[in-house]
């Protein structure tokens, strides 16, 4: 069963751009060769780290969205761990969060429909009141 994961890893700041591309292609190849799918890869650029990691204060951030099973993610994490250029990584499972957000969105959509209906209802009541008002005026005039 394929699940959706976000894999973020930080690469040493002294790695050249073409070496970084080869590194990303290598990790993407690992995923695709083992029946996984790389949904997107985003280079977030060079940023300052919150604290010193392996004597580095900066790093190049890469975010990969991957659809794969748990064994493949374990293999990808193993490769991230042994790759010298990668100084830190984290993997987060996001499919449960996506389901939760979809459920909340569906609930919000139903509330919007009800509010749209309630905004139409006062217009109908106001239209009915304007047609009823002329009939009430002659009675007021006779009294």
TrEMBL record:
Gene Ontology cellular-component terms listed: cytoplasm; ribonucleoprotein complex; ribosome
The name this protein goes by in its record: Small ribosomal subunit protein bS6
Sequence similarity: Belongs to the bacterial ribosomal protein bS6 family.
A matching Pfam family: Ribosomal_S6
BP-aspect Gene Ontology terms: translation
Region of interest called Disordered, as start-end residue ranges on this chain: 115-143
Compositionally skewed regions (Low complexity) per UniProt: 120-143
Free-text function comment from the UniProt entry: Binds together with bS18 to 16S ribosomal RNA.
Record flagged with keyword RNA-binding: yes
HAMAP family membership: Ribosomal_bS6 (MF_00360)
One term of GO molecular function: small ribosomal subunit rRNA binding
Keywords, sorted A to Z: Ribonucleoprotein, Ribosomal protein, RNA-binding, rRNA-binding
InterPro entries, alphabetized: Ribosomal_bS6 (IPR000529), Ribosomal_bS6_sf (IPR035980), Ribosomal_S6_plastid/chlpt (IPR020814), Transl_elong_EF1B/ribsomal_bS6 (IPR014717)
């Amino acid at each position: 069963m394929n699940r959706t994961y976000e894999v973020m890893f930080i690469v040493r700041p002294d790695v050249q751009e073409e070496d970084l591309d080869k590194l990303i292609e290598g990790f993407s190849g690992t995923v695709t060769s083992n029946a996984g799918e790389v949904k997107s890869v985003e280079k977030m650029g060079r940023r300052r780290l919150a604290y010193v990691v392996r004597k580095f204060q900066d790093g190049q951030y890469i975010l990969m969205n991957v659809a794969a099973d748990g064994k493949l993610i374990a293999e990808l994490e193993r490769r991230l761990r042994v790759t010298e250029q990668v100084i830190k990584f984290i993997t987060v499972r996001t499919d449960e969060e996506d389901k939760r957000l979809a459920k909340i969105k569906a609930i919000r959509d139903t509330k919007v429909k009800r509010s749209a209906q309630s905004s139409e209802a006062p217009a109908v009541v106001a239209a009915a009141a304007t047609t009823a008002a002329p009939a009430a005026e002659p009675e007021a005039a006779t009294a």
